[in-house]
Amino acid sequence: LRAVPDRPWPLLLLAKVRAKSGDKKGAIKALEEAVQQGLKDPADVSQDPDLKSLASEPAFQKLLSGMSPAK
């Protein structure tokens, strides 16, 4: 999958699909790429019910802690 510069939403959608299918590692990788493409608000990720299965993953928590909340 090729990322669209400055448009993290396709990668966020990919993360949701992967998380719902049980691919936690793949979901976190897609989220990391979404952050690199500009996803900044941790609330977009932490409050998303489709990503709930990732909440206990250390890599997910680390990702959230490195994000900057929207201003």
How is the topology of this model organized?
Layout: H1 9-20, H2 24-36, H3 42-46, H4 58-65
Structure, described:
This protein has 71 residues and is mainly α. The protein has helices at 9-20, 24-36, 42-46, 58-65. Helix 1 packs antiparallel against helix 2.
Shape: globular
Approximate strand percentage: under 5%
Please, what is the average pLDDT? 90
Q: How many individual β-strands?
A: 0
Give the fraction of residues assigned to helices. Answer: 40-55%
Gyration radius, in Å: 11 Å
**Poorly predicted runs of 5 or more residues:** none
In sequence order, what are the helices and strands, one letter per element?
Answer: HHHH
Please tally the helical runs, counting DSSP H or I stretches of 4 or more residues: 4
Distance from N terminus to C terminus (CA atoms, Å) equals: 30 Å
- Largest sheet geometry: none
Helix-and-strand structural type: mainly alpha
